[in-house]
Amino acid sequence: MLKYKVRNILIGFVVLLLIVAVGTLGYESIEKAGFLNSLFMTIITISTVGYEEVFPLSEAGKYFTIFLILTGTGTLAYIGTQVFDLIIAGEIGRTFGRRRMDKKISKLNDHYIICGYGRMGKIIASQLKEKGIPFVVIEKDEKYINEFDEKDYYYIIGDATKEDTLVKANILYAKGIISVVESDAENVYITLTAKGFNQDIKVFTKAMDDEASSKMFWAGADNVISPFTTGALQIANAIVKPNVTEFLELALGKNDYNIEVEELAICQNSKLKGKTILESNLRKFGIIVIAIKKSDGSFIYSPSAEEVLNDNDVLICLGRRDDFDELKKYLRS
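Above: the chain's sequence. Below: its structure in token form.
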């Protein structure tokens, strides 16, 4: 939105310069005036400052002056309204937009809070948005505001280590918090603060070294990712186990085939509850069940076709994105 308003203002100035050029050349041609007098006459005509005519006008010159007044003042009015809209109306719009967003954030439930919009935060936000998972981004730097608005993200400009900022993000009703700010110390502090507000909240964070990782687990983090360790292992596995790495990347959606791994929860009213994998007809949708996480936290890998699907089971499935969409439509019908 901002870039379009700036573009309109620039277009207005370009048109104004063209009118000034046409006016100057017109007076030179019609009234045989010099360049400076013609330019001066054009400027006072367009700006309507009311100075006397620099030179007597012929009938053709008067018609030309009327043309300049109409086009020039119209262009100036257009530029003025665009500037007003950009500065004044834009500020008012942002104020009311901020209030509307704060109201929507206060009504969120079972959402995620992303603390930090660096390289990791951007990828996480993009993935959650793609999956339709509600989230709020907390970021200190105001330079991302336009990007947040363009991508339709809920966001709070503030410090995630501050309690009032987390309260604004409705942490009491959040499902999880993802702390990926640059400092390990801040990630530990955010973890402690989040757990202090909500003991049931899932905390995902990053650590730059092993010592910080242990502190984050001690602080209550449920999942700690070390980017350097993870990256090094991926490179090593790509060398040692290239085919396994290729398959995992395929399963995680890093491919052109739209194949990915998804979780499918069996809830109390699910059509699949009480059925075996064979009876569920998942294969009819092109879905392969590669594991089941039972309600007690244990895993069944490569389950048999006779395995019964019970309440609170989570199926780990492999399939194409379109197939998962069809299955979800069937389960909602």
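Strands lie at 112-115, 135-139, 154-157, 176-179, 202-206, 223-225, 259-265, 288-293, 299-301, 314-320.
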